[in-house]
């Protein structure tokens, strides 16, 4: 029938530092407004940590968080990957090893990215080795809908039994 397979119809994008950082940017931007962003943030976190381990991204310093939990002061790790910068929650060692840069400079912006969310997810899933189904509980554990039963109305004075 059709000679196209899913992989053949969409060309694979090579996982270069620029493509990976663009993909992380797209996933992060969509996670901020997603109804269930847990998997997207896990994908970002895993990809950035792998890039840091491989020496393709580096931790720059700590910033005060714009949205601290429980209205307490909190810091995030600033990570440079290609032309993009990202924030991740810090580990205990980050406070000892990294300089604190103070408040976030709102004039510094990441460049625009041209990837779609599906392309970005595909790039990061192949790079990290994660699979979307095992890490996204909402896609597999939706409760089954109960079958609708019409109400039965009895005449006035009749018994329901």
Spatial strand sequence of the major β-sheet: 1-2-3
The SSE string, one letter per element, is HHHEEEHHHH
Number of helices: 7
* Rg over C-alpha atoms, rounded to the nearest angstrom: 23 Å
Oligomer: single chain
Largest sheet: 3 strands, antiparallel
As a percent range, the share of helical residues equals: 25-40%
Q: N- to C-terminal separation?
A: 58 Å
Q: Which ranges are low-confidence, i.e. pLDDT below 50, for 5 or more consecutive residues?
A: 1-9
Please state the structural category. alpha+beta
Describe this structure in words.
Helix content is 38%, strand content 12%. It is built from seven helices and three strands; from the N terminus they run αααβββαααα. The chain has helices at 6-9, 17-31, 38-53, 92-97, 117-128, 132-135, 137-140, and strands spanning 58-64, 75-81, 84-88. A hairpin with a 2-residue loop joins strand 2 and strand 3.
How are the secondary structure elements laid out?
Blueprint: H1 6-9, H2 17-31, H3 38-53, E1 58-64, E2 75-81, E3 84-88, H4 92-97, H5 117-128, H6 132-135, H7 137-140
Antiparallel strand pairs: 1-2, 2-3
Can I get a quick summary?
This protein is of the alpha+beta class and 161 residues long.
Record keyword descriptors for this entry.
alpha+beta
């Amino acid at each position: 029938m059709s000679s196209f397979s899913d992989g053949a119809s969409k060309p694979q994008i090579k996982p270069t530092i620029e493509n990976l950082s663009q993909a992380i940017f797209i996933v992060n931007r969509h996670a901020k407004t997603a109804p269930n962003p847990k998997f997207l943030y896990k994908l970002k976190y895993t990809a950035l940590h792998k890039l840091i381990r491989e020496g393709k991204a580096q931790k720059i310093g700590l910033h005060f968080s714009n949205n601290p939990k429980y209205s307490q002061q909190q810091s995030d790790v600033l990570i440079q990957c290609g032309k993009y910068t990202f924030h991740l929650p810090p580990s205990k060692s980050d406070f000892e090893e990294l300089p604190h840069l103070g408040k976030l400079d709102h004039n510094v912006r990441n460049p625009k990215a041209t990837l779609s969310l599906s392309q970005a997810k595909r790039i990061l899933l192949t790079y990290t080795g994660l699979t979307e189904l095992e890490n996204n509980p909402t896609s597999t554990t939706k409760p089954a809908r109960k079958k609708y039963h019409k109400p039965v109305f009895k005449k006035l004075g009749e018994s329901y039994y």
